Amino acid sequence: MVSRLAPFQHAFVQRLSELGIAYSGSPIIEGPGERYFDDSLRGGKGIGGRFVFVMDNDADSATQKAAQQLCESFSDIVELRRGSKAGITLVRPDGYIAYAAKGRDGLSALASLRSILERQTDDSPPIS
What we know:
The protein has one domain: Glutaredoxin. Helices cover about 30% and strands about 15% of the residues. It contains 3 helices and 4 strands, in the order αβαβββα. The chain has a 4-stranded mixed beta sheet, with helices on one face. The termini are far apart.
């Protein structure tokens, strides 16, 4: 009888699909740690095992140029896409937000983003 109630069904689907998982406070996430849902992930190859860097269409030309250069320097793991949401968002290959900057200086946000990508791709052994 309880399983027929809409709140129960919704909670069951959320738990089963794991779409309610969030990684806030994780040392490898510098954003909200939530899943990224936006039309900018449609088309192309989807995420395809790469980071997706989503930048809004209204970014100034200096930020757009710097973003293009950043993505070219990490071309094997990052794909640049345009989105409708304001700001800059880096989406991990598993669909979770690794970094988000809204209303910040674009060039400053790109410097932070570069640092994150360098840490994510560093092949050196961890310091103990």
